[in-house]
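Supplementary Note 3. Input sequence used for the single-chain structure prediction.
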Amino acid sequence: MIPVAKPFWFMLISTFSLSLTAALAKVLGGSIPITGLISLRFFAPALLAFGIMAAIRWETPKWEAVPALALRGFWLICTQACLFFAIMNLPLAEAVLFFSTGPLFIPLVERILFTRPLPGAVFLGVLLGFLGVLILLTVESLRFEPYTLVGLAAGLFSALSQVTFHGISKGSLSPVAQMAWSFPVAVAFSVLLWPLDAGSSAPLQPWDWPWLLVALLAVLTLNTQVFRSRALRAADHTSNIAPLIYTTPVFTYLWQYLWFDEPLSITGVLGAVLVVCGGIISLRAKARTVETAATH
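The predicted structure, written as discrete structure tokens, is reproduced below.
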């Protein structure tokens, strides 16, 4: 494999793993209460990450990195809780597509929190992406569906998580260590969601849960984070690989077609194309702006 291809394949492995995670979560939702599944989404990968560190090289964060790791854990639980509730109540591909609006929110979050400029090309991408969202909301199965707002909230929280993560990703911690120390925070906050399942009948008792699939969920979560980090570190220019993030909805549409009886509409596909195109334009324009500023 030529060196230039490595970031490309690393990112594809990451997005493929993320799409499988979403599909697997929808499958597990029929056996495990959703709040328990959200907790396992972080608890199982955290155990795996600590095990890998114990076997290979133990890493402890510096005190100055702890607040950022804790804040990232908080945004992660907000993101995944919204995503999982959307996945259980919306068609799989549309739920993931709403979650994939994260890159559209990032320039807006940076503009509001850090008063960073919003270049014209980035603004055009954001505008195009949210036009796609409006078109998606006209689809009959999504119209007046409150969980569409939950899916969009997942995208917003994802943006906040990534903005937070940007500060610690340049530190000395490996991707595995970053997961190991931020995921327990997410698990702790996930306990606050448990009352939402109070009084509801559990599909299966814990000893009957499909634990092999839960283990697979942990591996896929680890793959998603580690290979995305490796892709970004190996790439000469992030603008070349960042748009590959939008292969996640493409893979998810494939799983929806193959595994779930959830129809696709022409209007929904059109909205999805606009969201993806807007996200790609925004990501490439933003990355090129950063790279241009770094060379001056």
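The radius of gyration is 19 Å. The mean pLDDT is 83.
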